[in-house]
Every structure is written in C-alpha cells, then in structure tokens.
Amino acid sequence: MHSIEIGSLVLNGRLVLFLIYGAVGWLVLKLRFKNLKENDTVMGYASTAFLLWLAVWKGSFILYHPVEFINQPLSLLYFDGGRRGLWTAGLITVLYIAYRSWKRRLSVNIWIGSGIWFVLGCWFAYHMLYLVVGEKPVWFHALSAALALTFILLFIFLRLGFKRELGYSVWFLIGQTVLGFGVTDRQLWLLSFSKPQLLFVIAALLITGWLWLDDTKEKGQTHG
C-alpha cells in the first residue's frame, strides 16, 4: 500500500498504516499503565519515541535518497527511507529510550514489558487491517490477530507484573513462529525459517536470556 487516494488528496499509505498501528499500540500501552505511578513518565517517553521514530523514518529519505530529494523536495511527503529507514529509525528510537531509562533509572523490565504491550497492540492492528482488506492467507492473519488479542486479555485479567509478562511473551513469539510454518509461500532465509520467524526466535532467545540474567542477579543479591 504505497498511497491512499481520498478525492484529489493523495496520502502516503505506509505512513497512514504506521499511524494506525501506533495509535492502537499506544492505547494498549495506556491501558497497561492505568493507575500506575510510572504512567505519566512512560507514556510521555513512549509518545515521544513513536514520534521520533516516524520523523527519522520519513526524514531518512533525505539521507538515503539525497539526489531525489534535491531534485524534488516535495517527494518527502510521499516517500520514505524504505527498509534502511525503518532500521535507522528503530536504532535511534532504542538509543533514545535507553538514554531516558538511564537518566531516570527506570527498570529495564518496565521498558521491555512496555515494548511487548506496544508490539502486541500493533501486531493485532496489523493483522486486523489485513483481514479487513482480504489479504491472503486469511487464516494466518485471523489466527495472528487472535493470538495477539489473547495475550493482551491474558495480561489484563491476570495482572502478572512486568517480569512474568516477559516470560509469557516468549510463548507468544513461539506461537507466532509456529503459525508462520503454515504459510507455504513464505520466503525462506535460514533452513525452513522465514525472516519474520527468525526475528521472533531471536527475540524469544533475547528475552529468555535477559530473564535468566535478571534471576541470577537477584539470587546473587539474596545470597550476598
């Protein structure tokens, strides 16, 4: 979806989609931090981080396509930095959040947990939109949206706490990886895994490793 036409108005389709994903992710995150003392701090940083991500992603068009921008400055309204722009925006946003966390001495578990909630909201919105437009395979988008919604509701009703939510999120990542094997026309990157599947596996391993390190640290402090 490169553009959306509303009468004579032409909008950047990817930008509109990312705004929708971000809005749903923000609402889910807002629900998680309702009545918590960290609400104002985390929601403020999360909003800034998302806007920063959008700005860098759009602005990266100037970095990666300087000639096109110089020849046609208005092209910035319709184009972006592509895949490289996405990775650049993601890296800068992570560095921003890490810096803010260090300055305010916020728990790493809170920020990782916040990221999980935000991603679940975005993931749900992403697959629901694909269901609405009839993107195939329909079963994959339906089950992916249902899986994300299941974990959102699970976290809401069980009130597990950030650390336990991280542990449960590993199962979401595993579930999404398993669903991917049912998509027969996926592009394979390594063995029988597609690129999204590999990212899910890596994320699951990183979260598992972090939880292990955190538990080891807590046990060391207890025995010490």
TrEMBL record:
Keywords: Membrane, Transmembrane, Transmembrane helix. The keyword Transmembrane helix applies. The chain crosses the membrane at residues 6-29, 41-64, 84-99, 106-126, 138-158, 165-184, 196-213. The keyword Membrane applies. This is Prolipoprotein diacylglyceryl transferase. The lineage of its organism: Bacteria, Bacillati, Bacillota, Bacilli, Bacillales.
